[in-house]
Design goal:
Layout: H1 17-42, H2 46-73, H3 75-92
Bound molecules: fe (ii) ion (FE2).
Fe (ii) ion binds near residues 29, 32 and 62.
Length: about 90
């Protein structure tokens, strides 16, 4: 879980700061999804479980928002995402 930004801005090139911020935000959202899904799984109250599952789902939308911003900033990531998908498709064909 992230309660602090895991880098010092002074150590990052100015043109890379936004990309790093967005990557941290995406990682935090994935962490939140994992946490809320685990909390839902261990809850024996259906009302609490339902809300955690709903919030976990909302966090997936947040991943999409931050990823959309990151892909506007990091064109190499677009190519790498496509490359990764292609590799998996070929391996599992
Ligand atoms: Fe979120």
């Amino acid at each position: 879980m992230f309660s602090q930004i895991p880098f010092e801005q002074k150590n990052i090139k100015k043109e890379d700061v936004i990309k790093e911020i967005l990557r941290v935000a995406i990682a935090a959202e994935f962490d939140a999804i994992s946490l809320y899904e685990q909390l839902a799984a261990v809850s024996d109250r259906e009302d609490i479980k339902k809300v955690f599952q709903d919030v976990a789902s909302e966090e997936k939308t947040h991943v999409g928002e931050f990823q959309t911003l990151l892909l506007r900033e990091d064109k190499e990531q677009i190519t790498k995402l496509e490359g990764g998908k292609k590799e998996v498709d070929e391996l599992l064909r």
